[in-house]
Amino acid sequence: MSSPDTGSGNGAGRPGPPRDRPSLHVAPGVEVPLGELTWRFSGSGGPGGQHVNTANTRAEVIFDAASSAGLPGWARDRIVGRYGPVVAVAASDRRSQALNRRLALERLAARLAAALDVPPPRRETRPSAASQRRRLQAKRRRSELKRQRRGGGPAEGDGA
């Protein structure tokens, strides 16, 4: 008899490492429970011969951010404000569904992290005297060029 497997927990009835709830890490303090993700698989285009015609390797992951119970309120508001209530990401780069699943999860995490990123506020500055001088000189040059182009016909009031 062999000893019980304490590996990954993939088999039925075999204990695996303790996991509270598997989740996708998005940013510090923001985790998306994997149970809130919806998957769709379809055929992927591109090279691959007959394999492309028979395997559903394209992976699309859909996350309903508006009704997510796993997100903090501030994160939910920011994601919904930036992308809308549902965020969907697809991957069909690889010939393997497992690799495309991994790519889709990475892309979803990156997209959600980008929505949570807050740019630093702009510090107002005043234009320097030299930049104002350059701007006015450029306007004068452009005005002179346009004035030169207008010439040609008799001027108004010549009486001709």
- Report the oligomer: single chain
Radius of gyration from the CA trace?
A: 30 Å
Instruction: Give the overall shape.
Output: elongated
Mean pLDDT across the residues is 83
Q: Estimate what percentage of residues fall within beta strands.
A: 15-25%
Which series of helices and strands comes N to C? Answer: EEEHEHEHH
Structural class determined from secondary elements: alpha+beta
Uncertain segments of ≥5 residues (pLDDT<50)?
1-19
- Measure the end-to-end span: 118 Å
How large is the count of helical segments?
4
The major β-sheet equals:
3 strands, antiparallel
Give the spatial strand order of the biggest sheet. Answer: 3-4-5
The helicity comes to: 25-40%
Strand count: 5
Write the layout of secondary structure elements.
Blueprint: E1 23-27, E2 30-33, E3 37-42, H1 50-54, E4 58-64, H2 73-83, E5 86-91, H3 97-116, H4 129-150
Antiparallel strand pairs: 1-2, 3-4, 4-5
Overview of this protein structure:
It is built from four helices and five strands. The strands form two sheets. It has a three-stranded antiparallel β-sheet with strand order 3-4-5, with helices on one face. Strands 1-2 form a two-stranded antiparallel sheet. The model is unreliable at 1-19 (pLDDT under 50). A hairpin with a 2-residue loop joins strand 1 (23-27) and strand 2. It has 160 residues and is of the alpha+beta class. The longest helix has 22 residues, at 129-150. It has helices at 50-54, 73-83, 97-116, 129-150; strands at 23-27, 30-33, 37-42, 58-64, 86-91. It has a domain at 23-116: 2-Layer Sandwich (Double Stranded RNA Binding Domain).
